Write the structure tokens for this entry.
Amino acid sequence: MKRLRLALLALGGAGLAALLVAACLDLPGFGGRSHPYGTRAVHASLTRRAANTIASVNFDQRAYDTLGEMSILFAAVLGCVVLLRQARDEHRAQPQPAEVARPVRRYALIVLPVALVTGLYVIAHGQLSPGGGFQGGVVAATALHLLYLGADYRALERIRPLAVYETSDALAVSSYLVLGLAGVLAGTAFLANTLLPYGTFNTLSSGGTVPLLNAAIGIEVASAVVVLLANFLDQAVEIEEEHGS
Amino acid sequence: MDDAVIVVALLLMAGSATAAVVQRDPARQALVLSVLGSVLAVLFTVLQAPDVGLSQLAVGSALTPLLIMLSVRKVRRRGRPEDGGAK
Amino acid sequence: MTTVMHVLPYLVAAYVFLTGCYGLATSRNLIHAVGCLAVCQSSTYVLLLAVGYRDGATAPVFSDIKPGSRPVVDPVVQALTLTDIVVGATVTALLLALVLQIAKRHGTVDPDELRELRG
């Protein structure tokens, strides 16, 4: 049975490998000069005065796609919350404070504010420099969890009222939708970047609706990651099953 | 020159990906995945994609390994329920 | 050298994808399988970025270079990769939550033992 399964895997893998290699040989060569979509995206981004073309692609030219991605994130977090909730046959145990080496503690407490500010900076400068809502949101949310290393789980739970983060997650998703609908009300199209003036190139307020959508994504990602990690941490540290049931 | 750096980053990436698959213990695999995430971040930076590199650094080398470690801990904890409060 | 260089990144991506598939199929632990899926996903990032790369070009960020002064790499595939990474992370989280639920209900995370339980 096992032998058969491995043979089947080898056969399928060899077939897939042959097809993939054939496809690779037919792709346009690595490092080629012709990127028609890229050239057009750069041009569109520059006419709308967004210095970071990737932010412009994500939040302007393909903003509808980002809406879908955000819904995936939201649905996945919702699924995790439902799957990892405390069941009836489980109870919460007080986690024992564990020994953390002093230098680690001190280092975590020093790095925490730096990492948090870095995350917020990366969100705010999404349309100017590399970075944006996705990256900054994850950095800020994981930075918060350094408190678990630096202090203990109780301290982390105190600065992290989950209901607030769940609400801000939902609010950020709705604000993205509202910003999209505002375009419809203004007489253009859903998520069209015609609502606000494009501003001066390379300043914080440039790019029309790009900074606003970027901020919405930043808040959404940060709260989503906090909620996600909180649920996994609860499972790993606090929630225990009733024994002998 | 650029090509040489790209080739080195690609080979490092392939090597750490193989290591991540071959390492059968999930807790150690999480560490290897974290290394893979960092190597990928370097590769993306070399490929002139700083945005993607930053995102990979945050997600691939911090978030994903952390989630895997927490799951491993949960599964191990419930694997030995009888000895009462083993942490 | 150059002809090899033209396909090498694509071939590496294909190799990583196949390695991840092998790990997925032979895994004896569902958490390990989720890690292998993450490896599979990372191959797609490499493939996408390799398609958009351009020799001698710089990143498509114009906060410190004059637009038009230098060629830039394709920003569209980079935006796609960004989406890919975030979706990959959420998939990992959701799958791990499912694995924890399986461990709770069946007391094992070995796919072979799970099959025996069902049959």
About this structure: The mean pLDDT of chain A is 88.
